[in-house]
Amino acid sequence: MLIVLVIIATLSQCRATSTTIHMPVTTQDIIAGDVFFEIISPQDLEYTYRLRPAKDFGVSFSQKLEGIPMVLADPPEACHKIRNAREMHGSIALMDRGECSFLTKTLHAEAAGAIGAIITEYNSNSPEFEHYIEMIHDKTNRDAKIPAGFLLGKNGMIIRSTLMRLKRVHALINIPVNLTFTPPSKINHPPWLGW
């Protein structure tokens, strides 16, 4: 009887280990070609955020920028000339998705003097609100000379509403942030998200 119990226990352990493989999540799994930035001010937003770079327009976020303003675009959709060009000059533009192409928004930010563009879904009722969107070229004969990336809608909404609540037109950011050797548990991601 003891031998039968030992054989059953051994077989059940073999079955359990052969059907379940636990692979740790690595930082490389999280990064997967995305770019990260961190807000260093205001304190309410001091987290690390993920961007999906534009797929086939603009340039990459290869130049390390530290303490650079990320400015709310006016108008937020940036489908027309940006009115707050003075604040935008030398900054990263934060714009809302919709009403025109991603490339058009990026070109308007570039014309206003921005050195990068971040576009986010601001409509919480949109099916894309909780997803990263592949920003693609609009097939016109134009291209941007600045980098552009898509920010998850919930992050964009919280950043915009927090800046407005604090009566600020910009946050200070570091971009890109290298997380290659940072364990996932040590990434300072926003508490309202799970990665």
Care to describe what's here?
The structure is a single chain. It is globular, with a radius of gyration of 22 Å. The model is unreliable at 1-12, 14-18 and 22-30 (pLDDT under 50). It has helices spanning 2-19, 27-31, 85-88, 102-111, 153-165, and strands at 35-41, 48-53, 65-72, 92-96, 116-120, 148-151, 170-175. It is an alpha/beta fold. Strands 1-2-6-5-4-3-7 form a 7-stranded mixed barrel. The termini are far apart.
Structure in a nutshell:
This protein is 26% helix and 21% strand. With 195 residues, the protein is α/β, with parallel strands linked by helices. The longest helix has 18 residues, at 2-19.
